[in-house]
Every structure is written in C-alpha cells, then in structure tokens.
Amino acid sequence: MSIKVQKNILLSKYTTFKIGGPAKFFCVVENIDEIRETFKFAEKNKLKIFILGEGSNILISDKGFDGFVLKIQDTKYKIQTNNKIFVGSGLSLAKLVSESVKNNLTGLQWAAGMPGAIGGAIVNNAGASGMSMMNIVEEVEILEIITQPPLSGGISFSPDKGRLGGIRRLTNKQCKFSYRNSIFKEEKKYIILNAVLKLKKGNEEKSRKMISEILKSRKEKQPFEYPSAGSIFKNPVLDDNHLRRLIKENSELENISKNNTIPAGWFIENLGLKGKKIGGAMISEKHGNFIVNMGNAKAENVIILISLIKQKVRDNFSIQLKEEIEYVGF
Ligand SMILES: Cc1cc2nc3c(=O)[nH]c(=O)nc-3n(C[C@H](O)[C@H](O)[C@H](O)COP(=O)(O)OP(=O)(O)OC[C@H]3O[C@@H](n4cnc5c(N)ncnc54)[C@H](O)[C@@H]3O)c2cc1C
After folding, report:
1. What's the rounded Cα separation, in Å, for the pair 202 and 327?
2. What per-residue confidence (pLDDT) applies to 84?
3. Is 263 a pocket residue for ligand 1 (Cβ < 6 Å)?
4. At the top level of CATH, which class does the domain 224-318 belong to?
C-alpha cells in the first residue's frame, strides 16, 4: 500500500477556523490511484469518508469525524491553448490566481485573497464581486460514488451504502451551478479530480492592479487577523413585497439591496450582534457575517452564536438565514 493512513489526527489544524476534533483515520491523497486505495481501505474497515480541501468553508465538530478524512492535495496545473487551464482539485486558489496573471490570463482576479482549493471552490461555486466559479468552469472531471439511496450530511461515502464508480466528465451546465451551490454540494456523491477553466487573454499589469485593489478592500472589510470560515450565512433573497416592507422601515436598504438580495451581515449588524461572544467565538466587530475564533473557540460556541443569529433575524425580520458553511461530524 503506497498511501500513508494516519490515526487520530486533530482536524483543527486543517481548517481555517482552527476548530475541530480528531479524525479517526486521515490520509493525504495526491492522485486517483491513491484515492482508489483509500476507498479500498475504507471498505475493508467499514469507514465513512469525508473529502477535505483546505477546510475554509466548514465547521468540524468538537468530537471530530468518526471515519476517514481524505485531504485532496493534487496541485498539478497546465496552461493549455485557447486560454484554458487544466487544474488538479487540490491546487490553491492563491496559486491559480497568481499563475493565471503571470500567463497574461484574466477572469480570476475576484478570487484574490480567497482561501481554499479548486475542489472546494467548485463545490461551493465560490465567488465575489458578482463573479464565481460558474463563470470560468468549462468541464469538471469526477469520480462518482454509486449510492443507493443517496447520502446526506456532508459525508461522501459510506461503505454499507456505496461503492466507487468510474471517471466522468461534467460540462458547466451539468454542474448545476447557482449562488454558492452546485450539483456537488447538493448530491454529495462526487469526488472532484480535475477541472478545465476557461479564461480570457489579459494584461498582466492591469490584472495586478485590480488584484491589489481587491486585496485592499478585503483587508478593510474582513477580519483576516483572526481564524474564521469566511461568511457563515448566504445572503438572503427576498420577494418584492418583503423587500418593499423592509425598505420602508430601513431606508438605507434602498441602496444596499441588489437583485432583491440583502447582505446577511446587514441584519446581524442592525440587531447589534457584532462583538457578541460565546466562549472563544465572537461575531466579528468588523463584518457581521463572520464569526471569528479569538482563541480556543469550540465548535459548540460557534453553533450557539449561529442559532442566536438565526433566531433573532427570524424574529425581527421574518427571514430564515441559511448557512453557507457546511457542518462536519455533527
Ligand atoms: C477569510 C475567508 C474569506 C472567504 N471569502 C470567500 C468569498 O469571498 N467568497 C466565497 O465564495 N467563499 C469565501 N470563503 C469560503 C472559502 O474560501 C471557499 O468556499 C473555498 O472555495 C472552499 O474551498 P476549500 O478547499 O477550503 O473547501 P473545504 O472547506 O475543504 O470543503 C468545502 C466542501 O467542498 C468539499 N470538497 C472539497 N474538495 C473536494 C473535492 N476535491 N471533491 C469533492 N468535494 C470536495 C468538502 O467535502 C466540503 O463539502 C472565505 C473563507 C475565508 C476563511
């Protein structure tokens, strides 16, 4: 066996939140052969599997994950003709952005300063400034887990219910991208291996200027000084009547709302919840939609803050906030 399976590995160090208990088994995989080997190991030992990228959009429970965590670290990439890039799903967004700029390609500047790897970014249809992965993904190569019935709860594989199928390619349309969502997030039965991204010819100097403006704005708005998982909630989309009613009571929303969407952070700030602390977790004073780890925060502290926010927003605005982050091991 060429893979190195480790036991009882603390997951907090593999997440940007720096929160999470141990994985019963843990393995870093770099290619499809290693993934297949880990599945054999999981089948033999009857372990459920969780696929981990850079852990920047998840909250792992304090108990950890009672199964097998596969950290995908396939970081290969190749600039192709026609402004396309072939990327392994473990390549970081940071590296992808810098390589695309160096090669005079444009279309990815919005991802500057965003943590995470390609796989997780495709799963979430990660985005900013009105752009997201759906604008650049041409094709995604996957390994499909054949399940009967489909699995849920952030777990990609359970040996009693599934087996690993063959490689398939999905077109952009087949990925069913929508706001911070995709077929991968909905069905939880695909392992993303590689992707082909389509960019445009650009100008290195112009791209660099844009990136430095984006980084400056991120630094001003987001609490990079503390560990977090980025935005906790998706921005809610309201129907016309609901929006009109809210604007009547809060005139500033006239300028803040875009396409019937209001930033989740606005509700949290409006309710005076910024700075609210439970244990080591705090609703950021800088950005209402971020919960930060001030030191030794427990997943339980974060969960309490999330429930508090959801309850107050529901009671005061009749809006049910939905999580952008995913829960693992709860
Ligand atoms: C400070 C900060 C700022 C952020 N800003 C933004 C932002 O502006 N916009 C935005 O959209 N997001 C933002 N995020 C969230 C996060 O950066 C993105 O969602 C990122 O793309 C997640 O990638 P990841 O590798 O960390 O995924 P992970 O968190 O490791 O995983 C996320 C999900 O993807 C699955 N997954 C990961 N890799 C694979 C794979 N190869 N195959 C199948 N499933 C896989 C996991 O099982 C999990 O379900 C921010 C986060 C932080 C901490």
Report:
1. 38
2. 97
3. no
4. alpha beta
* pLDDT of the residue at 148: 56
DSSP-assigned letters across all residues of 223-259: -TTS---SBSBPPPB--HHHHHHHHHH-TTHHHH-BT
Buried b (16+ CB within 10 A) or exposed e, 50-80: bbbbbbbbbbbbbebbebbbbbbbbbebebe
pLDDT tens profile 82-100: 999 999 999 999 999 999 9
Q: Does position 278 have pLDDT exceeding 50, yes or no?
A: yes
CA R_g for the chain: 20
User: ∠ at Cα 74 (96, 77), nearest 5°?
Assistant: 40
The answer for residues whose C-beta is within 8 angstroms of residue 252's C-beta and 6 or more apart is: none
Full-model pTM: 0.95
316 C-beta neighbours (distance < 10 Å), count: 11
Query: How far, in Å, from the CA of 238 to the mean position of ligand 1?
Result: 25
Known catalytic residue: 180?
yes
Q: How far is the CA of 121 from the centre of ligand 1 (A)?
A: 5
Element (H, E) at 97: helix 93-102
Average pLDDT over residues 51-64: 97
pLDDT tens profile 225-254: 999 999 999 999 999 999 999 999 999 999
Atom of ligand 1 nearest to the CA of 193: 41
Sequence-separated contacts (24+) of 293-298 with Cβ below 8 Å: 293/17, 293/18, 293/19, 293/226, 293/227, 293/228, 294/226, 297/17, 297/18, 297/19, 298/19, 298/62
Q: Considering 92, 182, 231, 284, which one is annotated as catalytic?
A: 231
Convert the pLDDT of each residue in 211-220 to its tens digit. Answer: 999 999 999 9
Q: 83 with 201: CB under 8 angstroms?
A: yes
* 8 A C-beta contact, residue 272 and residue 316: no
Token pair for 281: 């977790």
Residue 33 burial (CB count, 10 A) = 10
β-bridge mates for residue 71, sequence order: 28, 52
Q: Report the 10 Å Cβ neighbour count for 47.
A: 23
